[in-house]
Amino acid sequence: MPVVGGVFAALIVVYLIVMIPIWRLPAVPEVVYPNGFGVKVLVIDPGHGGENEGARTWWGEREKARNLRYARALKRRLEATGRWVVHLTRDEDRDLPNSARPLIANAFHADLYLCLHANANAPDLTQRGFAVIWYLAQDNAERSHRFADVMAASLAAAGLTPDRTMGRPFMVRHADPDTAPAYALTHDTLPVYVRERTDHRMVYPATMPAVLIETHYLTDLGEATRFTTKAMTDHVVRALEAGLVGFLTTNNDVAEAPHS
């Protein structure tokens, strides 16, 4: 059966193309929670939902489903430590206005707010990598900028590809946010971007440190496939945990009283 043999060989090649980059990723060290860390509250926003489906992979998987899968995986890992109370803005496939998402984080008095998305670039199907975005207009903008730097550094240390092609190569602060560039780089080496406009209200007006992470590109065949695997999901979630704990630790938030 030469046809069957050819299909099997093709599947093996695809498997190796997908899995070898995962096997080569550096291990993420086990996160050590310092004394005084207490119990922190995190709100995770799985981007899109309902009719707002987001981008899609070449085989038709919707971004809304992938964002929710990663959010649930991160919630499970964090809550298993006993150091986190984690709320999702949505835990099902439902419509949720972008403007309502940061208000949910405010209502829970979260210590941190994290939006999870996946990127897309239909004209260039080879573009790949992650990016971390903070918002200049929000409260806690300075701490959100530091939060973005720490999260990006953690993902980069885990071997994820940085995407430094989303915006202009330097930050330009505008008097009128409506005339600002969509995204502008705010770090010399990491894919950290600022959005000055307030038209995208997925993060603004959260009152706590808050960032949006584009974990990868759904329009890149290799990335879209790799990020489907449990191995990649676990790797990314470990890196996100390390970044969350690292930010709170380095910014002296671990001495705060635990939430009741």
Keywords summarizing the entry:
260 residues; Aminopeptidase; 7 strands; disordered C terminus
CATH 2nd-level architecture:
3-Layer(aba) Sandwich
Number of strands: 7
Main sheet record: 7 strands, mixed
Spatial strand sequence of the major β-sheet: 2-1-3-7-4-6-5
Helix/strand order, N-terminal first? HEHEHEEHEEEHH
| Tertiary shape | globular
CATH topology: Aminopeptidase
Overall CATH class: Alpha Beta
Work out the helicity level: 25-40%
In total, how many domains does the architecture comprise? 1
CATH superfamily: Zn-dependent exopeptidases
Q: Mean pLDDT, rounded to whole units?
A: 88
How many individual helices? 6
Q: Which structural class do the helices and strands define?
A: alpha/beta
Between the first and last Cα atoms, what is the distance in angstroms?
65 Å
